[in-house]
Write a structure and sequence with these properties.
It contains six helices and eight strands, in the order E-E-H-H-H-E-E-E-H-E-H-E-E-H. By secondary structure, it is an alpha+beta fold. The protein has one domain (about 5-185): Aminopeptidase. It has helices spanning about 20-25, 30-35, 45-55, 105-120, 135-140, 170-180, and strands at about 5, 10, 60-65, 70-80, 85-95, 125-130, 145-155, 160-170. Helices cover about 35% and strands about 35% of the residues. An eight-stranded mixed sheet has the order 1-2-3-4-5-6-8-7, sandwiched between helices. Helix 1 (about 20-25) crosses helix 3. The chain is globular, with a radius of gyration of 16 Å.
Length: about 180
C-alpha cells in the first residue's frame, strides 16, 4: 500500500532507490544536520542494509516521491512500540532545492495520517539539532512540540551537541487538521 499526501507519495524502498539514499547519507552537509553515525556508505553496504531490513514490521522506511521529480527523500517510522502505540519519525530530503516546495510538510502530514489513522499509534517522537532550522520550521508547522533537551547527547565533528526532543500526539494532529483543514485544501 502506498501512502498519499497532497504532493507526495510514500512508498516502499526498492533496490533502485539505493543510489539516491546512499548519496543522501554520504552528503556531509546533510550528515551535519541529522543524528546518526557518520561513515562513508558504499553501494554494496546500502544494498545489504536494504535487504536486511525489507521485512521489519517494527520499523518502516518509505521513499518520498513526487510526480515531477520522482524519488526525493525518505520518511521513517522506526522502533514502533505496538503496546504503547508510539514510534520515532524522521525525514530526509535529497537536496536543498526540495526543501522549500512543501514536500517535507506534505510528507510529514502524510506519515502522521498513516501513523494515527491506519496504525492506531498515539504518539510520534523526533529530535533535531539547534542548527537544523529547516527541521525546526517543518515540525513546528506540522504541530510538533519541543519537549526537552538532551544535553551533550551526540558527538559530531569533535564536540558533543545538544539534542532537542520533540513529539506529537494523535490528539494534537487531529486538532491541527481541524484548524487548518489540511486534507480539504
Amino acid at each position: 500500500m502506498n501512502i498519499y499526501g497532497k504532493k507526495v507519495m510514500l512508498r516502499a524502498m526498492e533496490l533502485s532507490d539505493c543510489e539516491m539514499i546512499r548519496e543522501m547519507f554520504n552528503d556531509p552537509q546533510m550528515e551535519d544536520l541529522v543524528v546518526g553515525w557518520a561513515f562513508p556508505l558504499s553501494k554494496y553496504a546500502q544494498q545489504k542494509w536494504l535487504e536486511a531490513h525489507y521485512n521489519d514490521r517494527d520499523s518502516f522506511r518509505f521513499v518520498i516521491e513526487t510526480k515531477e521529480d520522482g524519488p526525493v527523500g525518505i520518511a521513517t517510522l522506526i522502533d514502533i512500540d505496538w503496546k504503547n502505540r508510539r514510534a520515532y519519525h524522521g525525514i530526509k530530503l535529497s537536496s536543498k532545492e526540495k526543501r522549500t516546495k512543501g514536500i517535507g510538510t506534505d510528507a510529514v502530514m502524510a506519515i502522521m495520517r498513516y501513523a494515527f489513522d491506519e496504525l492506531g499509534l498515539n504518539r510520534l517522537d523526533g529530535s533535531w539539532f539547534d542548527n537544523n532550522e529547516p527541521s525546526k520550521g517543518l515540525y513546528k508547522k506540522c504541530g510538533w512540540s519541543e519537549e526537552g533537551v538532551r544535553r551533550e547527547y551526540v558527538y559530531k565533528k569533535g564536540a558533543y551537541r545538544d539534542l532537542t526532543v520533540v513529539g506529537i500526539l494523535a490528539s494534537d494532529y487531529y486538532k491541527l487538521i481541524e484548524e487548518n483543514n489540511y486534507w480539504e485544501q
